[in-house]
Design a protein that fits this description.
- This protein is of the alpha+beta class.
- A 3-stranded antiparallel β-sheet has the order 5-7-6.
- The chain contains 5 helices and 7 strands.
């Protein structure tokens, strides 16, 4: 009652060079065909397709076509949703003043006025290295500027 596949071993020779002897494969349950018959284990996917009837092939081709169109529709819907979310996030950041292209850097005076801190406090934060800054020039003519995103992040972490 044991089911197994039977294949020929072309390399094994028994007296006659053209003779081929059957060899037993690994026992197991073979695949069931669409008709309910059984297929041997060593059948390739291409051979499976060749054994299909024309009606089965047409039905499979139609299902694949429908699946492709559904995937395309889902992809277009996702692209639209992602675009909407990206637009909302950009608008939110611009509302907080993070993505304003006109105003990427703030002077020390602007930071002090917006966050109600003294210049000495900002100096102490710079010396302690807890806020990033950009120094242009040297000596008394130097200007200290801060990236807007760094300032917002710094002061939001102080208030948290």
């Amino acid at each position: 009652d044991e089911l197994c596949s039977v294949t020929l071993n072309p390399k094994k020779e028994y007296g006659n060079k053209n003779a081929q002897t059957p060899r037993r494969g690994n026992p197991g349950i073979p695949e069931q065909n669409v008709d309910g018959g059984f297929l041997p284990h060593n059948i390739t996917p291409l051979q499976k397709v060749r054994q299909m009837r024309t009606a089965e092939y047409n039905m499979l081709a139609q299902l694949i076509s429908e699946l492709k169109s559904e995937v395309r529709g889902m992809r277009n819907g996702l692209d639209c949703k992602i675009g909407q979310v990206a637009k909302r996030v950009t608008e939110a950041f611009q509302g907080f003043g993070i993505l304003d292209p006109d105003e990427d850097l703030w002077t020390e005076q602007q930071v002090c006025e917006r966050y109600h801190v003294s210049r000495r406090t900002m100096y102490n934060h710079r010396k302690e290295g807890i806020i990033a800054f950009i120094k242009t020039g040297s000596g008394k003519n130097c200007k200290i500027k801060y990236r807007k995103a760094d300032v917002i992040e710094f002061f939001s972490s102080l208030n948290a």
